[in-house]
Design goal:
7 helices; globular; 240 residues; 13 strands; nine-stranded mixed sheet; alpha/beta
Length: 240
C-alpha cells in the first residue's frame, strides 16, 4: 500500500560562525512519529501561498509542529512583555500551509504551537502567558530533562473524536508550553481540558476537513499507547 506523504512545518535556527546562516529543521521525534506509523515525513521550507499550495498538492497531510510563540497581532492583540520569541517568517509560512491544506482538503494535525496557530488561523485567540493570565495551579512549561514524562492529567470530553479514539475520560500528558488557547475558533470543539481549564485538545466540526489539535507533545512519548493512537489516527486520515 502506498504510504502517505506528510509535510512537516519547519522550525528555523541561526547557525553559528563560521557558517553564519539560518537553517530550517524538524526534530527526530516528529519524523519518527510519522515514519513509525506508516507515513513518509518531508520537511517544508518557509513557503509563500503559491509554494504551499504546490507542496500540498503533492502531499497527503500536514503536521504543524511545535516551536516559537504565535504572534499576538494575528489575533488582534498587542505583544505583551511576557510573550516569548516570535518568528514572523514561520507564522506566515504556517498560515500558507494551513490555507493550502484546507483548500485541498488535506488532513491537518497540530501539536503544541501547531495546535495554537491552527486555532488562530481559524479565528481563535490565545493566552500570551498562562501563569500571568490564568494562574499557576498547574505547571505547563516543563522544558527540562523531564519533558518526556507525564506532567498532569487531562479530562476528555465525551462524544468527541478523542473520546472515541481512547474510550477513556482522562489520562496523563507531558507539557511544554507557556501559551495556550483562550477562545476556540468558530466551528471547532474542545476535546480535552486540564484541571485549570486550559484547552488541551480540539477538532474542527466538519464532514469534509479533518483537523485534530493537541496541546501536549505526543511525539515525545511514543512508547505511550494513547499517543501512538493519535498519530495512527492521523495517518489513517491521510491514507483515505
Amino acid at each position: 500500500m502506498k504510504k502517505p506523504i506528510i509535510v512537516l512545518s519547519p522550525q528555523s535556527k541561526p547557525m553559528e560562525a563560521p557558517f553564519d546562516m539560518v537553517y530550517n529543521f524538524s526534530n527526530g521525534f516528529n519524523f519518527n512519529a510519522i515514519s513509525q506509523r506508516g507515513g513518509i515525513p518531508i520537511i517544508s521550507e518557509m513557503v509563500d501561498n503559491n509554494q504551499a499550495e504546490q507542496l500540498m498538492e503533492k502531499s497527503d497531510g500536514l503536521f504543524l509542529t511545535g516551536g516559537a510563540d504565535v504572534n499576538p497581532e494575528l489575533y488582534g492583540e498587542e505583544i505583551l512583555n511576557y510573550c516569548g520569541i516570535i518568528e514572523h517568517d514561520r507564522d506566515k509560512s504556517d498560515y500558507a500551509l494551513i490555507k493550502a491544506a484546507i483548500k485541498l482538503k488535506k488532513p491537518i494535525i497540530g501539536i503544541c504551537r501547531g495546535c495554537q496557530i491552527a486555532n488562530v488561523y481559524l479565528g481563535g485567540t490565545m493566552y500570551q502567558d498562562i501563569q500571568a493570565q490564568v494562574g499557576d495551579k498547574i505547571n505547563h512549561n516543563v522544558y527540562d530533562e523531564h519533558k518526556n514524562e507525564t506532567t498532569h492529567s487531562i479530562n476528555i470530553v465525551k462524544d468527541t473524536p478523542l473520546y472515541s479514539l481512547f474510550g477513556e475520560e482522562s489520562f496523563g500528558v507531558n507539557s511544554l508550553h507557556h501559551q495556550a488557547i483562550k477562545n476556540l475558533a468558530p466551528n471547532t470543539k474542545a476535546m480535552a481540558f486540564s484541571s485549570d481549564g486550559i484547552i488541551e485538545s480540539w477538532y474542527l466540526e466538519s464532514n469534509t476537513q479533518w483537523i485534530r489539535a493537541y496541546q501536549w507533545h505526543p511525539e515525545m512519548q511514543q512508547d505511550n499507547s494513547h499517543n501512538l493512537k493519535i498519530f495512527k489516527d492521523f495517518i489513517n486520515a491521510c491514507s483515505k
